[in-house]
Amino acid sequence: MRIALFQMTSGIDPAANAAAIVDAIEQAKAGGAQMVFTPEMCGLLDRNRARATDKIVPEAENPVLNAASEAAREHGITVAIGSLAVLRDDGKWANRAFVIGSDGAVTARYDKIHMFDVELASGESWRESAAYSPGDQVVTADTPLGLLGLAICYDLRFPALFEALGQRRCNAISIPAAFTVPTGQDHWHVMMRARAIEASSFVIATAQVGEHEDGRKTYGHSLVVDPWGKVLLDMGGEKAGLGFADLDLGQIEEVRAQLPSLANRRIIAK
Fold first, then answer.
1. Which residues does the annotation mark as catalytic?
2. What pTM does this model have?
3. Domain contains 105
4. Total number of domains constituting the chain
5. Closest CA to 150 of 132, 167, 162
6. Which of 4, 80, 110, 155 could be cross-linked to 151 through a Cys-Cys bond (beta carbons 3.0 to 4.6 Å apart)?
7. Which domain holds residue 156?
8. Does residue 75 lie in a domain region?
9. Residues 119-170: pLDDT tens digits?
10. pLDDT (tens digit, 9 = 90+) per residue, 166-190?
């Protein structure tokens, strides 16, 4: 099965980001993909929250989601939107992932559980929880890949979420991101490979890359990792673009038969 990853350098204009995503969906379909994946915060990447406020709207009004849904329907392809900033019914913001079916309908939603609240030695300081409210649900979706587990960026560092997804026997786990450069250089590849190995599933990690309008820099290196931990695709850290990977879904059961770690799991008393 062929999938496409759209590595982006998203900016502060949702209309421009939506146009880029729609174009990528068309190109993905033309390239033979059955699914296309986008990064975290693909519709609006702006650390200036005062400036971003008017652009963070309820899901039904989100121009990027609406454009992607229409493009999915037009081209008959499933779209995994890494995440969008949306306004919840309670007035709070959510960092929300979506799966859109080939008919244009949203089939799954996942609100990022773990908030990126860190102080890096590089001087970068991030407080995602100052603006966003975390989710509390493990989410999977039925897709052309089979069962797809949903996670977002900083979730990568919390094994319990991936244990839960592994126990659900996901064929693949989507981990879209806007990773910082310092953490990406040291942690990105090793952690993505570890998550694929422990869940015996494919990992699809579509990333933001490069210098953004709001002044941040992101690591890139969108990855596809197979259930054995082998990197099938690495899009590098230099530029945006569309990449393709061909997945052998039969490999999942082959790996689980050789190394049945999910079946052999035991509960350790605390």
1. 40, 112, 153
2. 0.94
3. yes
4. 1
5. 162
6. 155
7. 2-262
8. yes
9. 666 666 656 776 788 999 999 999 999 999 999 999 999 999 999 999 999 9
10. 999 999 999 999 999 999 999 999 9
